[in-house]
Amino acid sequence: MKQSDFPEDIKPHLIPSPTGDMVYRCLECGGEHGIDVLLYTCPHCRGLLLLEDRAQYLLREYPGTFWRRLFDYRKMLNVPALKGLIAPVIPLEDIIYLGEGHTPQVAANDSLKEEVGAAFYFKNDGQNPSASFKDRGMAAALSYLNFLVRKPGAGKMLAICASTGDTSAAAALYSAYLGERVASAVLLPHGKVTPQQLAQPLGSGARVLEVPGVFDDCMKVVENLADNYQVALLNSKNPWRIRGQESYAYEIAQSFDYDLENIVVAVPIGNAGNITAIMQGFIRLQDLGVIGELPRVLGVQSRHANPVFRYYLEPDKSKRVFKPVTVQPSVAQAAMIGAPVSMPRVIRLVEEYTRRAGNGSVAVIEVTEQEIMDSMLLANRAGHIACTQGGESLAGYRAALKEGLIAKSEVGVLDATAHHLKFIGFQQMYFDNAFPPEFEVTPKPEYQNRPQLLTPKTEDPARKTADLATQIAALLGLTPKEK
Description:
By secondary structure, the protein is an alpha/beta fold. Helix content is 36%, strand content 14%. The strands form three sheets. It has a six-stranded mixed beta sheet, sandwiched between helices. A four-stranded parallel beta sheet has the order 8-7-6-9.
């Protein structure tokens, strides 16, 4: 839609100029620091940072009804840089857009709703460019890097991350788009990334380094590098990543016409960056009057990697103590993290969210590996493309319904964080009954599937086709046409 076709009162606001007064705000000491340098922790107390726009109060000069109209009209524009909501200080020419965001929100069909016991949607973030939700945050982080490296004398930047697979794919893809200005290196836990995920950063030209152990071991190395060398850290410790992932919340609000009463958003928790970004996004929309009610947020963890669930098992807030856990093998491989770096953000934002929306507005639930696999297969047999983390979201939603944490009258939005094909190996292990004992998964016959080889009973070319067709008709119970 051309700008000339928009309403007169909207035209002046469609294409924004760089505005705002953004700073890093420390969650521990409250200190603020300028954004002209790369920071991941507070230089004074080592606390985790969030991005804050000190000029956000200026946005409140316009009512929520204005922002709703503007967001809806902007969606009609053919301006790539405005397809997502990034930090307002970055000029449009520095914003990278590779097609991330605006992922489909697909309703469960009647049979799946009946099986689960409530209505819900899958939000298919596997339909992002690198096939996972990480692209939302990476678009923001690399747009900020692009903004920095385009300044005179900035020089070449090395972007680095630890990953269970999805982060490395997104980081390598967006870094590659910037060409020679940004080099990319990723650290992966050896033998704990699917072949599909390993292929992605290799294909984008990143330097791929494997480290013995699990993700948490890789993260320690990357943090050490960020503390001691000139590198750009692209994990969720990076506050620009969190800022970009807020767009998930904006899209959900827009899809329900900004009425989020009786909505439950279910999200798997790994490094805890996504759930904190989503809560922050909804809070930001409420502050601007774009939404009234905050939706409920349901965090889901596997029993094999459940530090956040364990933290909130203690009902008395004053007695809660966060303790990392040693993870066990999990089919929800992207969430197999025992020491989430965003835990301080979780604690802060859950407290703020609960203050605004009341007790029970945020809950964390635990599920088994069996429930994750069964839920993924159940969903995909009903027309979805959920990954194992999507199965984790559905397993958590089903468990929360069973435990009465959410009501059947509420409507769920479940995060399928990556494309089903990224984790296809786990499906094959299920079909072949090939899970090692430590996964604690026993296939259910009704969910298993495998190809069936047909052998013609004749070698006569004239009769072979008819013979195979007769076999298939018998197997499928086909009714012959009347002659």
